[in-house]
Amino acid sequence: MGSGESTTRRVSFGLDEEDDRVRILRGVKLSEDVLQRMRNASADPRPPVNNKENLGQQTRASSTSDPQPPKTQARTTVPDTKEELRKRYEQQQAIIQEELAHIARREREAARQDITRAVQRERVQTRQESEKTKQLGKQLEKKEVELKALEAFYKEQITQLEKKNEERFKTSAEQFHTAATRSEANIKQRNVEPVCSNLQAQILNCYRENREQTLQCSDLAKEYMQCINAAKKHQQLFLPALNGKGSLDNTSREENEILAAAHISLTVSNLLVNHG
């Protein structure tokens, strides 16, 4: 059956457990329709004998009035029974072959349907996975666009902050240089020369040479004190007086006098400590 060549199959019969009828064929239970067709085939009348045979039998029957012996009847009946059994067997075989072909067709159809359903499920699953992949790809592209937008935004913010910081740095540097220039213009460098440096050196040498007889240096000490007093009078040290606006007058002169007085006081104190 089908596209392939037909092959002869051997079949085996089995009895049904319910009514002891032939219903099972190599593990396949025959349907009631097949069984009915087999019954109808077995119930067909015996085919008629040829006319020649009937004529001969009628002639022989008319020629003699004696009945045929039972052996002759048995001889003519047995071949007919075998022929009927053979034909019945062939009919049953044809029915069984047809049923087997029908079962094979149904099995092939069921297998084809199963394969079709499996292919359809696979296609549906593949389509769903493809759609899911496309959706994930779109989401990824959307995230990438958002990240690029955020990156551009933060870059712009950083650029603006850098510009602002640079402007503030320039402004601060300009203000610093301006203030430094003003301070340098207001503050002039002044050189202060030491007072009575020669006498100071002589007194120090005298005290080093006469550690046990320091009175020998008293004359130099008196002379040194007189020199200091003269320097004080010359510098005219005094406390700065505030003017009506609360500012100092003659700032450069007052600074020179304060520095000279501090130097003199430090020198005198050092000499007194060493002398003591």
From TrEMBL:
One Pfam entry name: MIC19_MIC25
Name used for this protein in its record: Coiled-coil-helix-coiled-coil-helix domain containing 6a
Domain of life: Eukaryota
Membrane topology reported for the UniProt record: Lipid-anchor
Region (Disordered): 32-84
Keyword vocabulary terms for this entry: Coiled coil, Disulfide bond, Lipoprotein, Membrane, Mitochondrion, Mitochondrion inner membrane, Myristate
Keyword Transcription regulation (UniProt): no
Polar residues biased stretches: 51-79
Membrane recorded as keyword: yes
Main localization category: mitochondrion
Family: Belongs to the MICOS complex subunit Mic19 family. Metazoan Mic25 subfamily.
Matches recorded under InterPro entries: MIC19/MIC25, MIC25
One of the record's GO cellular component terms: MICOS complex
Localization terms from the record: Mitochondrion inner membrane
Primary role: Component of the MICOS complex, a large protein complex of the mitochondrial inner membrane that plays crucial roles in the maintenance of crista junctions, inner membrane architecture, and formation of contact sites to the outer membrane.
